[in-house]
Structures are given as C-alpha cells and as structure tokens.
Amino acid sequence: MMVIRLYEGNSQLNDDTVMDVVIDIQNIRKSYLLGDMEVPILHGINLLVKKGEFVAIMGPSGSGKSTLMNMIGCLDRPTDGNVMLMGKDTRSISDNDLAELRGFEIGFVFQNFNLIPRLSAYENVLLPTYSNSKVNLDNEERARDLLETVGLGDRLDHKPTELSGGQRQRVAIARSLINDPSLILADEPTGNLDTKTSTEVMDIFSSLHKGGCTIVMITHDPEMEKYADRVVHIRDGYIENN
Amino acid sequence: MLDPLQAVKMAFGSIGSAKLRSSLTTLGIIIGVAAVIANVSLGASFNQFFNDEIGAVGSNFIVIYSQNTNVFFDNELELIGNTPGVVGVSPINQQMAQVTYLSTSRQIDIQGVNEDYSEVANFEMKEGTFLTDKDQFVAVLGEEVALDKFDKKISSKNPIEITFRREDGGVVTQKFIVKGIVKDPETTFAQTGVEPEIRIFIPIDVMNGILGVDYYGGFFVKAESLETVRSTGDEIDKRLARNLGVSGRDLDDDDTKPYTIFDQVEILEDTNQLSSALTTLLTSVALISLIVGSIGIMNIMLVTVTERTREIGLMKSLGFSKKDILTLFMIESVVVGLIGGVIGTALGLGAAVLVNNFLELPNIFPVSQIGIGFVVSILVGLIAGVYPANKAANMDPVDALRKE
Question: Whole-angstrom Cα distance, residue B248 to residue B257?
Fold first, then answer.
C-alpha cells in the first residue's frame, strides 16, 4: 500500500512495475549558488530505471551528468523535485539514514578508482562493511569470492600501487558489490583506462548485467553505448530523449 | 555503525603510513607525559623520603620542651603518663659533658632518659640492651660515639668516665659501665640534636642526682598511632597548660606558654606541604609541555584530514555516516595520544628511577599516578581530535570526492 501511495501521480508507472523500479527521479532541479548568483544545472529531469536495466547516461562535460549522478547516488540533494530509490522517498530521510542507504543499496565505481592506498585489495573490498554490514553475508568470504570473480584471486594482499589501472578498477568493482547492492553507479569507469583494459572492465559490467545487476553508467564515450540497454542523453541540464 | 576493531586497525594503518610525521607528533606527547609522570613520582618519592626520615626519629612522637628550668617535674611526668592515648613517655635532661675513655676525652651530649625512651625513639640495639628504670651507673652509647669518637672502640661492659658540671657550680666525675650500643638510624635528615649516633644515654634519675636538680628539660612522648598523635598532643597541651596555670585563651599563643609542644604529624604536614608545593610547580610546567604536545596532535590531524579529503569523500559515498568518520579520526587521534602516553609513562618512570637512585630516594610509583598518565594522554588525544575530526565528518561528499 505504502509503495503505491509513494508513486501516486507518476504517469510512467503502472502497478505491476512498481516493485521493479530501482530509481524514480521526479522532476528534479538543482542549482548552485555562485556568489549571490543562482546557477541552474539541472532543469526538471525525470528518469526511471527498472530492476536489471543497464542505462548509460551520456553527455558532454558541463551537461550536468555528474550532478545527476550525485543525485542518483544520494551524495547531494536536489533543490527541487524528488529522488525515489528502491521505493524510498529520499527527501524525508536523515543524512545518517541516507549514508546507510548508500552503504547497502548503491555500489559506486569511480573514474579514478578511489582505492585507499594503505589498504590491500582485499581490505579495500571489505571497507564498506566496516560501516554497513549485512548480517546474512560472510563478508570475508564474499570479498575473496568477488576478487576471484574479477580475476584478482591471486592479488588479495597487493596494495593499489602494486596493481595496474585495469586491476585497480576491478578491485573497485568488487568493492561496489560487497554489500550486494540494488544498483551499481559507475562514473566514467573507463575514463582513465586504455582501450584494451576498458574492454576488459566493460566485459565485467556486461556479465554483471547478465547476472541481473542494475547498472547506471555515466560516460561521454560513444563506444560504451553498445553495452547499455538504453542510453539517456543529457545536454545543458535537460534530457534529450528517454 | 562503525566496526570498532576495524576502526582501530585503520587508525594504526594511517599512523604507520606516515612514520616520521607520526613519531615527531608522538614525541611531543611522550615528552609531556614523561615530564608529568617523572615529576609526580619524584614528588611521591620525596614525600616518602621525608616521612621515613621523620619516622626514623621516633614513631607517633610528641616532643615537649621548655627553655626555662624549673617548669617540669615528676608531677608533669605523671600527668602526661596518665593522659589517654599515651603509650610511653620519657623525661629528658641533657648536658654537654666531658667523656673519658682510656686516654681520650671528648665533649659529648649526655641525655638523661628513662626506659620508655627506646620505644618512643624507635631504637634498635646494635649490642647489649637499653636502659631500664632499675639501672644505676650504666650508659647506652650511640654507634658513632662507640666506634669513631675515641681512639679505641668502646664495647659493652667497658667503663667510661663522665664529668658533669653541677647546678651549684661543682664538678663531679662519675664512672659508668656501657650497657649497650644503639644502631644508627638509616637516615640522617630531621632536626639536629636528635641524632642518636653522637649521644650517650644514662638513667635520668642518676643524672638528676649527680646534677643536684629535680626538674626535667622536656618530655619525649609516644602516642598510640599516627592518627591519634594530634589529638593526644592537644590533650597533653591542655592538661599541661591547666596544670601550669596558663589560661584557656592563651593555649594557642606559644609566646605566653612556658613550653613548646609539637608532634610528628605537624612535621609531616610541614614537609609534605613543601614537597607538594614543589611537585605542583614542576607538574604545572610539565603540563604546559603536554598542552604543546596536544597542539601538535591537533595540527597533524588537521594535515591528515586535509590530505585525506578524497578518502573521506569516498568513505561517505561508501556509506560511512558523519558519526563513523568522526569516530574514525577521533580514534586515530586518541591512538597517537595513547602511544605517546605509553612510551612517555615508561620514560617518565625510568627517569624517576634514575633520579631516585642518584639522590638516594625511595622508589615510589603509585599505580594511580601511572593511570593518570594514561588517562591524560587519552584525554589529550580526544581534545586534540575534536576539531579535525569534526571538520572531516562535516565535509560535503561531492566536494570531497572532487578534490585532487
């Protein structure tokens, strides 16, 4: 009942798809204050991502795609409008609960990997569980399995500096999966990689997608379009086609 | 909720990743804590030293003496002996007299006392026994008198001759048989004139008989315990004053009383006051260095937080809450403080041992003070960490992630 009430008035939905919606962005606006001037970045964006979809968000730099990703990832709150994540209204959620939501439901993959240099590959994968840990998962076994899955089963104790760029991004992907999230949010995951390793990394995303993962990827590389079910183009803060 | 074990592990990892910087920061705390611990335990050692010294003069003692003759008689002796809480009292008279043994003569302080004196003064005998009230012309010597003062060593049963000046101006020489020798006390501080090693003790009745007097110069009293010394002394004071016709309101005025009374606790309090004033002064100086050390921690934590801005952004995006980030950096700050505290405590105690051995003081390490060292270092870490950790916790994840 509650879920239906939350989706009241959204024309994109009918009842049997409600449970399958991962992201439902409702007319969000975001503007930043530069001095006393308000600079609008996003102008009323609507976006719906269903469970199991692989969506690519494309756009040139300055188009607002990073801001959109921050909204989806609950790292920032919209100036207006609403972000529904797994049926939860994020407007009414406290910062603490929002952090927990990120920890359990969203797996981030960044362009520059963002691994902690002091920690081994294995510890980097475990890092999210230090704060949010699902009781029904054996974190340590899962971390080893995930590193095995991305082909780094023999690199558990290597520090990030002892790994290549492609290997680092694979560690980051394993980290994003540790809490079995509902959504993988990847921000230019191949932006710092050469063509060959980009392909390797994208193959991993592909197989995750085939395994049922919901993935939202931000990219400006048209080459990456072919991996996605759906491409959303964003330009100057508007979505061009959906 | 942050896993505390992992948080501590991460703190150690972070501290270990910048070893030189961490050691220099820790050094500030080490010096501060070491200085505090060393000063506090030195203070305790000094206190114990003073207490031992005063204990060596006698236990639970009260001293009463008069500058005038003809103040104290048998009546007062009896009065003091009957005061509740008194377990022993010896009257005392003293005179510098010429003492001759074989062919040598020396001027030595002769003390007339009774058999209680040994107990009041905590005497241990090197040989023989102390005087009893039945003794006549026998003497007990201080160790130094027996061994060093004369050309030949004196031992028990040797005869000595003592030449007294009588009150009426006559001179009397009397032979005494040595009955025993008193061991030197281990310590040498406290008042001069209470040093048993350069004195000769004879029965006071014999001494007064020779001198032709019937008054006493003073009394050496032993109370039941250190706790009752003060009240027993006050009671004696009251009784003596009444007996000698001093009015109640002059009781506290030492100038109008014909005698002076003081007890062990008074001396202890005086010396303790002195040593605690000294300890307080030194400890406050040491605390300043601890404050400087904590500013060092705060500074380095701020550097760490700035350096790790992107990591903080990452952790926030991975689901670490404000409280988690705050805890993480607070733990790191406390760990730095605690490492400094552990090493500083060890160094401080080591320094105290060195100084104690050098000054021949007793080694006193109250556990509570070592505990204070730890608590203080944890507190320093906590206080120094609050601002940097807050700064980290309140970072905006988007800005933090964007930082190069």
Answer: 11
